C-alpha cells in the first residue's frame, strides 16, 4: 500500500532499539559513553537514551544518513574500524539480548527539533496506524499532534514514519522538563476541548499505542 508523501530529500533515520541484559545495563551505558566517539566518527548520532518507564532494560538510538549508499559505506567502515570493533563491539555484544532496527523518514511537515535546554526527559510514543499510510490517516494524525503542540506543555522533537520495519508505524519524540511536568501537561490536554476533538478524529485510524519515558546518555547530542 502506498505510504504517501515524505520529505523532498533522501535523508533517513535508522532507529535502533536494544534489549540489554538486566544485570548489565550500567556496564553497557558506561561503555557507550566511553567509546561512542569511535562510532560517531563515521556518521551522525541524533540521540541515545535508556528507558526509565514504559519499557525495561532498553536503549534507543537514532542515526542520520544522507541516503542508502551512505549507510552502506558507513557500515563497511565501522566493520573495519579496529577501535570500534575491538574496544566496544567485542565487549558489548555479550551484554545485548536482542536488537531491532527500523528505517524511517521525518514526516513532510516536521523538522527535527531540539529541546530549549538540557536536563529534561524524552517521551517516545509509538503509534501503530491502520494500513494505508499517511494518504489515509496523515491529515488527522497531524491535526492531533498540532493540537498537543498548541497547548504549550510539551516540545516536539520529531515525527518519524517507518519505511523498513513494521509499516504504518509512527514514532513521535517529545521533550519535557521532568516527568511531573509531562504529567501536568497531559492532564491539561485531556481537559482541552481542542485536543480532545483532534485526538478523537485521529484514533479512528489507530490500532495501538505505546509510550516510553527516556533518559538521554551523557554522550547523546539530544539531552
What is the gist of this entry?
The chain is of the alpha+beta class.
Low-confidence stretches: none
- Beta-strand content bin: 25-35%
What oligomeric state do these chains adopt?
Answer: single chain
Nearest-integer average pLDDT: 93
What is the approximate shape? globular
E-strand count: 8
Largest β sheet strand count, sense and barrel closure? 8 strands, antiparallel, barrel
Order of helices and strands: EHEEHHEEHEEHHE
Backbone structural class: alpha+beta
> What's the alpha carbon Rg, rounded to whole Å?
18 Å
Strand order in the sheet with the most strands: 1-3-2-8-5-7-6-4
CATH class category name of the largest domain: Alpha Beta
Number of DSSP helical runs = 6
Say what the CATH topology of the largest domain is.
Alpha-Beta Plaits
The CATH level-2 architecture of the largest domain is identified as: 2-Layer Sandwich
**Number of domains as seen in the coordinates:** 2
Helix content range of the residues, please?
Answer: 25-40%
Instruction: Give the termini distance in whole angstroms.
Output: 36 Å
Amino acid at each position: 500500500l502506498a505510504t504517501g508523501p515524505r520529505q523532498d530529500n533522501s535523508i533517513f533515520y535508522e532507529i535502533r532499539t536494544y534489549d540489554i541484559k538486566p544485570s548489565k545495563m550500567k556496564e553497557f551505558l558506561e561503555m557507550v559513553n566511553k567509546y561512542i566517539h569511535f562510532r560517531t566518527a563515521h556518521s551522525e548520532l541524533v540521540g541515545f537514551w535508556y528507558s526509565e518507564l514504559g519499557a525495561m532494560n532498553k536503549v534507543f538510538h537514532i542515526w542520520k544518513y544522507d541516503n542508502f549508499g551512505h549507510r552502506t559505506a558507513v557500515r563497511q567502515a565501522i566493520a573495519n574500524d579496529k577501535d570500534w570493533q575491538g574496544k566496544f563491539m567485542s565487549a558489548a555484544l555479550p551484554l545485548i539480548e536482542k536488537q531491532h532496527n527500523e528505517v524511517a523518514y521525518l514526516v513532510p511537515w516536521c523538522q527535527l527539533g531540539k529541546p530549549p535546554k538540557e536536563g529534561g526527559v524524552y517521551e517516545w510514543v509509538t503509534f501503530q496506524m491502520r494500513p494505508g499510510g499517511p494518504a489515509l490517516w496523515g491529515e488527522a494524525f497531524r491535526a492531533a499532534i498540532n493540537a498537543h503542540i498548541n497547548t504549550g506543555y510539551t516540545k516536539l522533537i520529531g515525527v518519524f514514519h517507518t519505511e523498513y520495519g513494521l509499516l504504518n508505524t509512527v514514532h513521535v519524540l517529545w521533550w519535557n522538563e521532568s516527568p511531573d511536568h509531562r504529567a501536568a501537561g497531559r492532564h491539561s490536554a485531556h481537559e482541552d476541548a481542542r485536543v480532545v476533538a483532534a485526538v478523537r478524529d485521529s484514533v479512528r485510524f489507530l490500532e495501538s499505542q505505546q509510550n516510553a519515558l527516556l533518559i538521554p546518555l551523557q554522550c547523546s547530542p539530544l539531552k
